[in-house]
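Predict structure. Chain length: 154.
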Amino acid sequence: MTNRRTLLVVHHTPTPLLREMHEATLQGAHDDAIDGVDVRAVSALEVTIDDFLHADGYLLGTPANFGYMSGALKHAFDSTYDDIRGKIDARPFSFWIHGRSDTTGARRAVESITTGLAWKLAAEPVEVIGKPLTDGDQALLVELGGTLAALLMG
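Prediction complete.
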């Protein structure tokens, strides 16, 4: 019997482009070569303390809104941070961000919160500017999802 692990994908994807990015990461995370890893995708507005506590790794997805992560992803952390901090240290994570012209502030915000949670960046984040997604963007997102899931196979 194998010990199954869980990758929690917390996302805010209100537009077709953001959903396309999210789906690309899920495609990678569900690669047939990855065994023993359950992928659980939860909207940032619906994620719970238990979702974070019962996951072994995290993949976050957000638009850059007015120089910051989405309000939905901020809400996810605002409503769980005190209850999960210190209980899920050193778990692997990464993230993707889409911005119309810049992702700097959103990246800084995600890095600040995840540093406070003592998570370990396990794969280079994917930052996409503008639209539509290029084949290169798509490939990076698939790779990101696959990398995070594969790291949990151990």
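Summary: Residues 135-151 form the longest helix (17 residues).
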